Amino acid sequence: MNLHEFQGKQILASYGVRVQRGHVANTAEEAVTAAKQLTEETGTGWHVVKAQIHAGGRGKGGGVKLAKNLDQVKEIAGQIIGMDLITPQTPPTGKRVNKVLIAEDVYYPGDSETSEFYMSVLLNRATGKNMIMYSTEGGMDIEEVAEKTPHLIFTEEIEPSVGLQGFQARKIAFNLGLSGAAFKEMVKFVDALYKAYVGCDASMFEINPVLKSSDDKIIAVDAKVTLDDNALYRHADYAEMRDTTEERPIEVEAKAAGLNYVDLDGTVGCMVNGAGLAMATMDLIKYAGFEPANFLDVGGTADAKRVEIAFRIILKDPNVKAILINIFGGIVRCDRVAQGIVDAYKNMGDDIKVPIIVRLQGTNADLAKQIIDESGMPILSAIEFQEASDRVKEALS
Ligand code: GDP
Ligand code: MN
Question: What is the free-text note on the cofactor (predicted)?
Answer without folding.
Answer: Binds 1 Mg(2+) ion per subunit.
